[in-house]
Amino acid sequence: QASIDSQALGPGERAMDSAADAADAPAATGADAAGDDASAKPTGAEAVISFTTKLPEPYVVPEDELVVPGTLMRYGLSEVVNRLLSLDKPVPFDFVVNGEYLRTSVFAYLESHRLSSEKVITLEYVLALSEPEQDQVDEVPDWIAAVTPVQAFPSQCYVAVACDGTARLYSGSQSRLVVRLTDNVLTSVAALPTNGGKGCQVVAGCKDGSLRCCAIQHGGDGSSAVAGPVASLSAPGCQQGVQAVALKEDGSLIASGGWDLDIHLWNTESSLFAKPDAAGAGAKRAAAGGAGAVPKFSLQGHSQVVTGLDFGAPSRFPFTLVSCSWDSSVRVWDIAAACCVCNWTVARAVTSVSMSPIMPPQLATSHEDGHVSLWDIRAPPHPTKQGAVSLDATAGLPLMSAQAPHRRLVSKVAWCPEDAMRLASVSHDGHLCILDPRSPKMPLQSLRLGKTGPDPTKLLCATWLARDALAVGGSDGKVVRVSLNSGKLPTGEES
């Protein structure tokens, strides 16, 4: 029987699979298990399965019915598929049944769903996540508060802001530029690509209640990065920390929210993002623009600190801003009418929010008790914009799933911009978790970053750079690039 890369499974599940498979060691699997008559009824501890997949040839097996040991879990099932494919190099697979990952034995699944052992279970096999790779990009003298890509997805370049008041530009695993935005603590960051991906506009939130705005030209690969002067924005009378910032996709608006409980929206003026001058990166960056500017309008409604902001994609949620708060609510704002159109209570204090990249619309929220929740947005079609939805008072937010992949506060949850089946979350427990809506009870993968023990490294931020790459930062001052090593076939094709 073909062997399989055991890195595809966690140690606990490898042990469970090994024990389950060992119990049925005399029994055959794959083609042998099917016997001469693939449609034969199962006997004793056997089950009937059928495989299907969306992978390309030659990774497709016949969709015949097979009789296999009912104690098989995903490790044993992966061996069956590898044997049927007769691959030179085994490939680790995972299995989806009725829209969810199989995380038990086949028999346990039948029993939990009260199905007969003669019921044919159709298993879709997909490429499994293998052991991720960590690459420490940088280590700075203070906490990494936030990180964001600065190019269209996938992004080679990204910016991290630290509590020492600096913003740092990275390209891949290389540090390219350090810009001092303030002498105060930075808490959040947003960026918008410009100049065909060769530059960006950066907005950072500050603990003194202000925003810092700066333009960076990086040439696309960061090798010749230079920053323009830094501009400052402050709402009148606001001296409490900003916790969340967002830039509208068309670059016309900036949103900020934090401890003053209000959400402020600003017009984006060219003076806020003045281009770098000939003096280059070493020049002193005196404040430029923003002086005397006031918000276009402010939105009021949250009763506790605003922790997350997300402008809706114009093609799906026109004129929409989503916010979340420690007051256990997610609100949707109509930024054309400057009013709240949805106020959804979610039972737990919310630390971040992320929108799914495709339709039908879904929402992810992270919470202070280690939970990550996925929500289904139920809203009518937009009356004038085809393919969009109309978020108004009639829209609902039923819960799809809630799991607790972390033991402490979840700092950030982020949906992959090009994969609706992939999310990432980071927590004060020091773990990065990869989540999938098809695995509602447990993460696909949990990776420890930084210091362990009773006082682990607090992971504070994460962002997707590509479908299989993330940048993560935390209380140890380290910026880490994580490669998931998934979706790779021996031929070089990807799922």
UniProtKB/TrEMBL annotation:
Keyword Nucleotide-binding: no
WD-type repeats, residues: 235-270, 299-335
Tree of life domain: Eukaryota
Matches recorded under PROSITE patterns: WD_REPEATS_1, WD_REPEATS_2, WD_REPEATS_REGION
Any Gene Ontology CC annotation: nucleolus
Gene3D superfamilies: YVTN repeat-like/Quinoprotein amine dehydrogenase (2.130.10.10)
Domain (NLE) ranges: 49-109
Region (Disordered): 1-40
Cellular localization per UniProt: Nucleus, Nucleolus
UniProt KW keywords: Nucleus, Repeat, WD repeat
Composition bias, Low complexity: 17-37
Protein name, entry field: NLE domain-containing protein
Annotated source species: Alexandrium catenella
